[in-house]
From TrEMBL:
Residues 33-420 form the Major facilitator superfamily (MFS) profile domain. The chain crosses the membrane at residues 29-46, 66-91, 103-120, 126-148, 160-181, 193-213, 240-262, 274-294, 306-325, 331-354, 366-388, 394-416. PROSITE patterns: MFS (PS50850). The keyword Transmembrane applies. Keywords: Membrane, Transmembrane, Transmembrane helix. This is MFS transporter.
Length: 421
């Protein structure tokens, strides 16, 4: 079987829907305004991690205000990750039912509402807002690749770089600005977090023209038949699909532990909050290098085993550095972790495509890996917080994440073989 083309198999939430003439006309009208679409993609992508990264530098203040234990504090970051998985399961159905533009715009409004709910003076609102935030970001995660494939089929790789770069830029901006915004707003973490709802609302407004131009195509689509619908074999029964899924989940787990706790690890060892926030922002920024380079290399290899060893080795080295000298080597460890994190997520997403024989299989494998993977990843911040609370330090949590790195290496080497689901 010939190797799949990564751009041809770029994940599409509407893969089994064929547009009617009315839908095609609406889509042509939309593409007649590519600047509007490009601005909308960039603004939406900026929101795909900002609401998560902006919490971490403030987690100490949030915990203090509500009197939360370390375990309860970890739920502030774990709950959104949990619903990244739950939201991924329903995103394809929503896209087929209502259209990608409408769902994406609605997700941005939902994200803004979730951010604002989190700053209400109630722990129920804090966690409930996290549910909305995670669900909204899940919809964005699933819809964006398919939208790019649909509307920019000849520039899919370039547009994928634009959206992934914007996503990381949003996380970097939120991580770096959270503490300064807190100071600018008079020392209130609530105002600092609420600020990011404005970014989501601006993005939602930018998508209104696309929604209006595409209005009317929903309900005119018909089910596609014939080629491109896949073999019908359930990916849930495939060992290779589970290997890809577990690699996605384990690399997400070590990433969300860092998103939740990296600034706290630094401040617990004596670093100032502002410096910890800047280094955390650097960690997010440097992920661009790995996220850009590793998928390019992966697409040129029949087996990606060397890349699995590289990215897991970088992450393990960074975590080991946090164990040995967290403050003295903070910039180095953050850099190693960032390149490894970016490379790992890029490799995990690329493996979904490369291990699939057709677009329908790629779509199903994406749904499985994101649903199960993010549910697994949600365990990371919660477990790290609970173990930290039980042991009074970060040594045991970091050792456990190193064990996760070893497990990711094992399943990653299996997933990187030149096989097809």
């Amino acid at each position: 079987m010939p190797r799949p083309d990564a751009e041809q198999l770029l994940l599409d939430a509407e893969v089994d829907v064929r547009p009617s003439p009315q839908a095609s006309a609406a889509r042509r009208a939309l593409l007649a305004h590519p600047v509007l679409l490009l601005v909308g993609i960039v603004l939406a992508s900026l929101n795909m991690r900002a609401a998560l990264a902006g919490v971490s530098p403030l987690v100490g203040e949030i915990s203090g205000d509500f009197g939360l234990s370390a375990t309860a504090t970890s739920l502030v970051t774990s709950v959104p990750v949990l619903f990244l998985g739950a939201g991924a399961a329903v995103a394809p159905w929503l896209a087929r039912r209502f259209g990608a533009e409408q769902v994406l715009c609605g997700a941005l409004v939902l994200l803004a509402a979730g951010i604002l709910l989190r700053v209400a003076p109630s722990t129920y609102a804090l966690y409930g807002g996290g549910v909305l935030v995670g669900s909204a970001i899940a919809l964005l995660n699933v819809l964006m690749p398919g939208l790019i494939k649909r509307d920019f089929p000849d520039r899919a790789a370039a547009m994928t770089s634009v959206y992934t770069g914007s996503m990381i830029a949003g996380a970097t901006l939120a991580a770096a600005a959270s503490v300064p915004l807190e100071h600018a707003f008079g020392g209130g973490w609530q105002a600092s977090l609420a600020f990011w709802s404005l970014l989501a609302l601006v993005a939602a407004v930018a998508w209104v023209p696309q929604v209006l131009l595409a209005r009317g195509r929903t309900g005119h689509e018909v089910r596609a038949t014939g080629t491109g619908t896949g073999t019908g074999r359930s990916v849930w029964r495939s060992a290779l699909a589970w290997q890809v899924t577990l690699f996605m989940g384990l690399q997400s787990l070590w990433t969300y532990v860092l998103i939740a706790w990296l600034p706290t690890i630094f401040t617990d060892h004596g670093m100032s909050r502002s410096t910890a926030g800047v280094i955390f922002a650097f960690n997010n920024l440097i992920q661009v290098a790995g996220a850009f380079l590793v998928p390019l290399l992966a697409g040129r290899m029949r087996s990606q085993r060397l890349l699995v060893v590289l990215v897991t080795g970088l992450v393990a080295a960074g975590y080991a550095g946090l164990l040995a000298a967290p403050v003295a080597g903070a910039w180095l460890w953050s850099g190693l972790l960032g390149i490894g994190q970016g490379g790992a997520v890029g490799l995990a997403l690329t493996l979904i495509v490369l291990r699939s024989g057709d677009a329908a299989t790629a779509s199903r494998l994406s749904g499985m890996s994101q649903t199960v993977g993010y549910l697994l990843a949600a365990v990371g911040p919660l477990a790290a917080g609970a173990v930290h609370q039980a042991t009074g330090g970060w040594t045991v949590p970091i050792v456990l994440v190193l064990a996760v790195c070893a497990a990711a290496l094992g399943v990653g080497l299996l997933a990187a073989r030149d096989r097809r689901v």
